[in-house]
Amino acid sequence: MPDSEPRRATLTSDYQRDWPKYFDAVSSSPPRDTCLRALAALTQQGNAPIASQTRKLHAIDIACGEGRDTRAILAADPRWHVFATDSSHEGLQRLSRSLSAADAARVTLTQATMEELSALVPTPHSADLINASFALPFCHPDHFPRLWKWIGETLIPGGVFAGQLFGDRDEWASVRPQSHFSRRQVLGLLDGYEIVFLDEVEKDGDDAMGGLKHHHVFHVVVRKL
Q: The whole model's pTM is what?
């Protein structure tokens, strides 16, 4: 009997997926490498944003999901306070249940879409770290320029952004082409930042839900100049 054709990874026409199933699929996954690299960049000796051992450190975890990166940020230093947002109430509940009482006191959980963030957190130069692991490609393309501008305005000088952008040869570019970028476009977005880490990956492989797709992803860690 011939093998069946591998299942393709798919999104709905409005670029969404079954988030509860996604949370189940990634529940035991470690923090994203870009988040860990950003934390390492911020703890380098002499880094101005965290030179003071007494002031609080402020992070924003965009589309935090079930919280793997939020927990890593909290574990990195007791001074971190995290504003964790997600459009999924269930994701935020899962994160809340995973926190100790001490860690919960250092987290503000807010249900919000990425498109709403610029209105929810309008304070400029207020974040040492903005983390958006595999989140930004899911922002509606009409709102992405405003979100990216808000990220730059919200980071303090020397603050770090970590996240992913989808490349223009990614299979899902056919679903929402404007949410995918060429390398030249990515470098244009990173103008005004020091590149700490930029890794362009293109390969065939499984997505988090086990479906096969062609991936074209930029993994980004940058420091605001």
A: 0.91
CA distance linking residue 154 with residue 134, whole number of Å: 19
* Cα four-point dihedral sign 66, 44, 58, 196: negative
**Are 98 and 82 within 8 A, CB to CB?**
no
CA-to-CA separations, 31 to 38, 40, 65, 106, 124, in angstroms, rounded: 12, 13, 12, 18, 27
Q: Read off the pLDDT of residues 65-122 as tens digits, 9 standing for 90 and up.
A: 999 999 999 999 999 999 999 999 999 999 999 999 999 999 999 999 999 999 988 8
CA neighbor of 130 nearest in space, from 221, 43, 211: 221
> What structural domains and CATH numbers belong to the chain?
31-44+54-224 (3.40.50.150)
